[in-house]
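Hi support team,

I submitted a single chain yesterday and got back a structure, but I'm not sure I'm reading the token output correctly. Could someone confirm the output below corresponds to the sequence I sent? I've pasted both exactly as they appear in my results page.

Thanks,
R.
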Amino acid sequence: MDPRLLYSLAADATLVVHAAFVLFVILGLALTLVGKPLGWRWVRNPWFRLAHLGAIGFVVLEAWLGTLCPLTVWEMALRERAGDVVYSGSFMAHWLHRLLFYQAPAWVFIAVYTLFGGLVGLSWLWVRPRPLGRKGRPDPR
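Hi R., thanks for writing in. Yes, this is the structure output for that exact sequence:
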């Protein structure tokens, strides 16, 4: 098999992981906020909530430090090794990139990520996670 094809497939896989991460961050908050009034117990799962808070915390920290996401760096390096100069990759790569990477000044991203991170933090006050040792017992709140 051509090594350039393998690098291209690895770049596509990295892009899919990146898109899944973004969906986890966005849908995690949306489902938490919707799940409280609907009584979904899993939205109070402390491991889910810690993973979600850690994910958006990482994004906010990257934005404030002005660093690129490691997934972006890895994907670009893989595409370069595959011989792709511009996003001339697969259909999936093209459309996922159009959804994930849009042009705006850096301050816009910093503000949006910080506000979203603040919403995730506030969700901890409104939809309190269960303590780590408790397994699914009803929460009186």
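A quick pointer for reading it: The two ends are 58 Å apart (CA to CA). Let us know if anything else looks off.

Best,
Support desk
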